[in-house]
Design goal:
Blueprint lengths: L1 H34 L2 H7 L4 H18 L3 H6 L5 H22 L1 H7 L17 H5 L1 H19 L8 H34 L6 E9 L9 E11 L2 E9 L15 H7 L2 H4 L10 H16 L5 E5 L1 H11 L2 E2 L5 E2 L4 H12 L4 H19 L5 H13 L4 E4 L2 H7 L15 E10 L9 E12 L5 E11 L5 H4 L2 H4 L11 E8 L5 E7 L4 E7 L2 E10 L4 E10 L4 E6 L12 H5 L2
Helix pairs in contact: 1-3, 2-9, 3-5, 5-8, 5-9, 6-8, 8-9, 13-14, 13-15, 13-16, 14-15
């Protein structure tokens, strides 16, 4: 009778848990669908996030209640099944904390804000909405950050597939919402300051030219100075790097590590400031060049590229440049990075066209012609791809940017992620990189010990210029052999940063002029120089030993073309 009673309790409890688990899974599945759009909505349309958040909260509250009763809690202490039940409980509790508590104040504030209030009017943006949502955005960022940490702390290895899949999905979802809320919190603090709410400011905006590679994107050929005051934005100056003198030594001292990698070149020519791999250093060099010419330092430096301009043109619609050309999201990169140089073969006029195009896009944005939702989406996309970089001369603003992609810092490896860095630079003195392709692929190869794994990286560079580039392209585009590089050949100097603490197991390059190694800020840097004629291609494979993390990533130079993922199994084979 006792045994029968025990069995009855066990069977009844198992059935109870099974039914509640099934119901909880259904609610969590519905919650995931509601939450899938939150990362974008929180960043681009806070008011529209309210509807998604209400539906999300209903499902997460139900899932939390179903997975928190006494029987469920007791079963969590059992072997094998216990970790599965605990994971479901933590997922339900974490996502409910986000839906019900973290996002609540932000949704309340968002409901009172019209998205059109973010649109510039008469050249000015009303900063009041950003200030009003500042506290709520901070609460949301802190809450989602804690929820994501709770999920990340679970032992994923103990989970079976049926639990691990939703666990990974919710974990990824929380990471996305965390990034979105942190971005909004940072923006609510930073944008009013940058727009001159606390006093007038001046920002140097440099437009990097992806047709002539530099580590951070390209040669900063054109620039504009923007004055902000009480939300109003005014373009007060235009220039190009061709109008700045060069110097016999760096305009600012560079540390020994930087000098070992790049030499003094970034501080001697304005065209090379983005050769360094840390935007904070590049921006300070640009500020010094500007100050020496114009006499007054700027409050910050902002970098964009023609691809980012094409994103902005999706929001503004086509704009007309002073030359009469119509610039739109489809033709911007092609026109600015190639056709302008075919039309203006000496280069100087092309730089003027470049600057005029950037000014035309700025005028369209400041005039309020951009749709606010697409505009915010364009800025977010440019930031994620490192095509929008910001440095502030104000320490408190720079602290807000810390750790974001907008800061453009060196790749960071920590307990959560392992990151390589791949930065490419033109060595031809040309615009041949319009035809160049940079592809990077990384993958884990497998464990080497209880503590380390093998990670592989492949870097591939191609020259897809026409076979007759030496005669069909203008000398300003093909280089004309000014650095001893045959016309039509693309010379690339790549800085390949290994993860911090990683050690090379093996490496192999198919083509090379030179290969060298240095240390920069605790990271080993391999310098690889290669010359590629039209149709040429070269690859460099690395396999390194490093602790395993859930994320393996490559921080790389943003180029014109989309990265193509390659099969790098061969890299793992010789690990």
């Amino acid at each position: 009778m006792v045994l029968g009673a025990v069995l009855l309790v066990v069977v009844t409890s198992a059935a109870w848990i099974g039914i509640r688990a099934s119901l909880a899974q259904s609610h969590l599945s519905e919650a995931q669908q509601s939450a899938a759009e939150l990362p974008t909505l929180v960043s681009t349309d806070p008011a529209a996030a309210a509807t998604a958040a209400d539906a999300l909260s209903e499902d997460t509250s139900a899932a939390r209640e179903l997975t928190s009763d006494a029987i469920w809690r007791t079963a969590e202490s059992l072997p094998w099944i216990g970790p599965q039940l605990n994971a479901v409980s933590v997922l339900a509790r974490s996502i409910d904390d986000v839906a019900s508590d973290a996002l609540g104040p932000l949704i309340d504030v968002a409901g009172t804000i019209d998205l059109d209030s973010f649109t510039p009017r008469d050249g000015a943006i009303d900063v009041t909405p950003f200030i009003e949502m500042r506290d709520a955005a901070a609460i949301a960022a802190d809450g989602t950050r804690r929820a994501a940490a709770s999920v990340a702390a679970l032992d994923r290895a103990a989970l079976v597939g049926a639990v691990r899949t939703p666990f990974d999905e919710v974990s990824s979802l929380l990471d996305g919402v965390t990034v979105a809320t942190e971005s909004l919190a940072n923006a609510s603090v930073l944008l009013p300051r940058m727009l001159g709410a606390d006093g007038p400011r001046d920002y140097l905006v440099i437009v990097q030219n992806n047709a002539e590679w530099r580590s951070l994107g390209g040669n900063p050929g054109a620039m504009v100075l923007i004055h902000t005051e009480n939300g109003a934005m005014t373009l007060t100056e235009q220039d190009s790097t061709g109008g700045f003198p060069s110097y016999r030594e760096s305009v600012l001292p560079l540390d020994d590590d930087q000098l070992a990698v790049t030499g003094e070149s970034p501080g001697m020519w304005f065209q090379n400031v983005t050769q360094v791999t840390d935007f904070a250093v590049a921006a300070q060099l640009a500020n010094e060049f500007w100050t020496r010419k114009y006499g007054t330092p700027v409050d910050g430096v902002i970098s964009i590229d023609p691809v980012a301009l094409s994103y902005l043109l999706e929001a503004t619609g086509p704009v007309t440049v002073a030359t009469g050309d119509v610039l739109d999201s489809e033709n911007a990169a092609r026109l600015l990075l190639n056709e302008a140089y075919l039309r203006y073969p000496t280069g100087g006029e092309a730089d003027v066209f470049f600057a005029a195009s950037a000014a035309a896009v700025f005028d369209a944005i400041s005039a309020g012609t951009a749709q606010p939702g697409p505009l915010l989406e364009a800025l977010a996309r440019a930031g994620e791809e490192r095509r929008l970089l910001i440095w502030s001369a104000h320490a408190e603003d720079q602290a807000v940017l810390g750790g974001t992609t907008l800061q453009g810092g060196l790749p960071v490896t920590d307990a959560s992620a392992t990151r390589f860095g791949v930065y490419v630079n033109d060595g031809t003195g040309s615009k041949m990189d319009y035809y160049a392709r940079l592809n990077t692929t990384a993958a884990w190869c497998g464990p080497l010990s209880d503590e380390t794994n093998a990670a592989a990286l492949r870097v591939t560079i191609k020259n897809e210029a026409p076979a007759d580039a030496a005669t069909s392209l203008p000398p300003y585009v093909h280089g004309d052999g000014i650095f001893g590089v045959p016309a039509g050949t693309a010379r690339t100097v790549a800085y390949i940063y290994l993860p911090e603490g990683a050690s090379i197991l093996r490496s192999r390059a198919t083509e090379s002029r030179t290969i060298d190694s240095h240390m920069h800020a605790g990271r080993e840097v391999i310098t690889w120089s290669v010359d590629l004629p039209p149709g040429g291609s070269a690859s460099f494979d690395f396999t390194v030993e490093t602790p395993f993390t859930d994320v393996l990533d490559v921080v790389r130079t943003p180029t014109l073309n989309v990265n193509e993922t390659e099969d790098i199994s061969i890299s793992c084979e010789f690990a």
